[in-house]
Amino acid sequence: MTVWTAGADLTIAVDVGRPPIPGRMDVPKALESFLGAFEIMQAAASARKIESRAPDIIVRPQVWEIGILDFTKVDQVLEQAKPAMVELRNQLSGSRAAIAGLRWWRRFDHPEMSRADH
Fold first, then answer.
1. Of 30, 109, 15, nearest to 62 (Cα)?
2. Which of 41, 53, 59, 96 has the maximal Cβ count within 10 Å?
3. What is the per-residue burial (b if ≥16 Cβ within 10 Å, else e) of 5-37?
4. What domain range is 17 assigned to?
C-alpha cells in the first residue's frame, strides 16, 4: 500500500540527506567511508523514487555537522531545520485543510507543547 492508494490528498517528502562538507580533504575512517557509501546509495534511491512518483511538496532542510548515527542531536536538527519548516508553512499556506490534518504541525505553532504530547 502506498500513500496514494490509501487516499492521501497531499504528499510531503522530507529529504534528510546531508550535502558533502565543502573543502574536506582528510581521508575518512572505515566506518565513515561505509556510511558515506550508504548515503550516496540512499540519495540515488530517493532521487529515483521522486522521479517515478513525485510528492506534492519536497522539503530539504539544510542540516550540517549531523552524522547518520547522531540520533541524540534532535534539538540541533530541529533548530537547523527551522528555515525549511518556514518554507513548508509558506507552501501549505493556501491549504488550511492540509495544515489541520498534520498533527505535528501544531507543535511548531505552539512551542510550549512538548514532544511527549504527540
1. 15
2. 59
3. eeeeeeebbeeeebeeeeeeeeeeeeeeeeeee
4. 12-117
65 is a domain residue:
yes
**Residue type at 67?**
G
Whether residue 62 contacts residue 83, with contact meaning beta carbons closer than 8 Å, is answered with yes
111 occurs within a structural domain? yes
Please indicate, yes or no, if residue 37 is contained in any of the structural domains.
Answer: yes
pLDDT per residue, tens digit, the chain (118 aa), is 677 667 777 788 888 776 666 777 788 889 888 888 888 888 888 888 888 888 888 888 888 888 888 889 989 989 999 999 998 888 887 665 555 555 555 455 544 444 444 3
Residue type, 13: A
H/E segment holding residue 85: helix 82-92
